[in-house]
Design a protein that fits this description.
The complex is a heterodimer of chains A (about 350) and B (about 120).
Chain A lengths: L3 E5 L17 H5 L36 H12 L3 E4 L13 H18 L7 E6 L5 H11 L5 E7 L11 H9 L3 E5 L14 H6 L2 H13 L2 H4 L5 E4 L6 H15 L10 H8 E4 L8 H11 L5 E2 L22 H15 L10
Parallel strand pairs in A: 1-2, 2-3, 3-4, 4-5, 5-6, 6-7, 7-8
Chain B lengths: L2 E8 L7 E7 L2 E7 L5 E5 L13 E7 L7 E10 L6 E3 L4 E2 L2 E5 L2 E7 L2 E7 L5
Antiparallel strand pairs in B: 1-11, 2-3, 3-4, 4-10, 5-6, 6-7, 8-9, 10-11
Classes of the chains: A alpha/beta (about 350), B mainly beta (about 120).
Chain lengths: ~350, ~120
């Protein structure tokens, strides 16, 4: 089975970025101790914290820090043909502020990822990380990185802002200009509809809420109508919420279309034509339950397989989805849907 | 009925609270020595997505009957999967959240200073 994995996290230590960062900014890391915003009030109460326990490095580095281990545990282990790197340290999920520094840091991160990961394994493809608070700067960074043929995506991590707001328009225009997918990814800074709740189990159960918020924001603010060729993928929220999203948004559009007359197509149709959903975190279900969900979505082209390596809720390509799926559906989920979405992905070279 | 055995390790190499992975023919197993010194053998493969449980953690079972109450039961250790965190009672192999879902138990014993695991009907290669 051909597999494209649309969510693999590589990770840098801040010090790793210094050679790629303009010297002006070095001292804010080396002397003033800047660290990324992190608003999660809990630890991740799993065997290995954020990571699979077996993906952490013996020297204490977090999962995703070592290309060799990534090859061993994912690419080679499961015969993955192509993987889209989704990174770490995305300023879009942080609070507004220290804008120039964060824009420069994203640029350094992108150069680090290209040199240390993307150009070191033919199976790996990259994302442009941007500071969405500086949308014009983000667009310039997208223009710069899009010249690299192995960059396939613009990455936005979710904080507490809906990305359909007009101030983000330059980012979507730049992505569309270069035929880059916009990947919208959950983060530790993503709230629930009611904040953070008391327990990690609550917060993690409610992860799909922010994805529904982002999809609704992009649809009703006209982003996807403005760029009908643009593809957006929602990463790390699973897919079981999609029928609810489609059915409810369609109903609201039928009832309230006059408030958003620039939305010409029913939201469900916009989703089916332009929005995709990474599969992880998969939930236990039977094959007939999955096919029922897909039937309710109205398309079998919306789900793209993802592992979320090296995180603790990693999904195994062999075990995460139910056994007994029809072959043509499995081929779509594991590879064909991703290849149709990431149009900059080249045809895989098979040995 | 044939029985397959494997020499897992020296008995003294497995301390209370420790785990030792091994292979019984084709079957991955994990031997656990609980804090009371008893040995327990389980198939080393999570029922959820197949992770090697020997890469996880041995933890006391946590109980609580009212909001905010946490009671750690040292007498009932659980093996927590290194990936998604499914918990198994090492004495029974049962998933803590559903006793109907259980890992296959493997017989283990100390024999002349060694820990030996054995099971019937295991594919040898």
């Amino acid at each position: 089975m051909s597999i494209v994995d649309v969510d693999v996290h590589e990770r840098a230590a801040l010090e790793d970025l210094l050679p790629y960062l303009e010297p002006t900014w070095h001292r804010y890391i080396t002397q003033y101790g800047w660290v990324p915003d992190r608003f999660l009030p809990y630890s991740q109460p799993t065997a290995g914290g954020l990571d699979r326990a077996d993906a952490k490095l013996p020297d204490g580095r977090p999962g995703g820090s070592d290309l060799g281990l990534l090859r061993e545990q994912v690419l080679d282990e499961y015969g993955i043909e192509q993987a889209v790197l989704t990174g770490w340290l995305n300023a879009s999920s942080m609070q507004e502020g220290w804008t120039e520094f964060k824009t420069a840091l994203m640029s350094a991160y992108n150069d680090w990822a290209v040199e240390n990961w993307i150009e070191r394994d033919d199976r790996l493809f990259g994302s442009v990380h941007v500071n969405a608070w500086d949308a014009e700067g983000a667009a310039r960074e997208i223009d710069r990185m899009a010249e690299h043929p192995r960059i396939v995506q613009v990455m936005l991590y979710i904080g507490d802002q809906p990305f359909g707001q007009p101030r983000y328009a330059p980012i979507f225009a730049a992505a569309a200009r270069h035929d880059l997918v916009v990947g919208i990814h959950h983060s530790e800074n993503s709230p629930t509809a009611l904040g953070r709740h008391r327990y990690f189990a609550e917060w993690h159960t409610l992860v799909p809420q922010v994805f529904m918020s982002q999809a609704v924001s992009l649809i009703f603010n006209g982003v996807l109508e403005r760029h009908p060729e643009l593809r957006v993928i929602l990463v790390e929220g699973g897919f079981t919420y999609v029928p609810h999203l489609i059915w409810t948004a369609d109903q609201q559009w039928r009832e309230l279309r006059h408030e958003v007359p620039w939305v010409k197509r029913p939201p469900g149709r916009i989703i089916r034509e332009q929005v995709r959903f990474a599969s992880q975190p998969a939930v236990e279900m039977r094959a007939d339950q999955l096919t029922t969900l897909i039937d309710q979505m109205g398309s079998d082209e919306l789900i793209c397989f993802s592992t979320d390596y090296p995180h603790w809720d990693f999904d195994s390509p062999l075990e995460a989805l139910p056994r007994g799926l029809p072959d043509d559906l499995a081929r779509k989920i594991f590879a064909e849907n991703a290849r149709a979405t990431y149009r900059r992905l080249p045809a895989p070279v098979r040995a | 009925m044939s029985e397959t055995s494997v020499d897992v390790c020296a008995a003294g190499d497995l301390e209370p609270g420790g785990m030792a992975p091994a292979r019984l023919g084709m079957l991955p197993i994990v031997v656990v020595r609980t804090l009371d010194g008893q040995l327990h053998g389980l198939v080393d493969r999570c029922l959820h997505q197949g992770a090697r449980l020997s890469g996880g953690r041995l933890l006391p079972h946590t109980e609580g009957d009212t909001l905010g109450e946490y009671r750690m039961l040292d007498s009932r250790e659980v093996l927590k999967c290194p990936w998604h965190g499914y918990e198994y009672d090492v004495r029974t192999g049962c998933a803590v959240f559903d006793r109907r879902r259980a890992l296959r138990r493997i017989e283990v014993r100390e024999e002349a200073g060694r820990i030996v695991a054995s099971a019937p009907n295991v594919s040898a290669s």
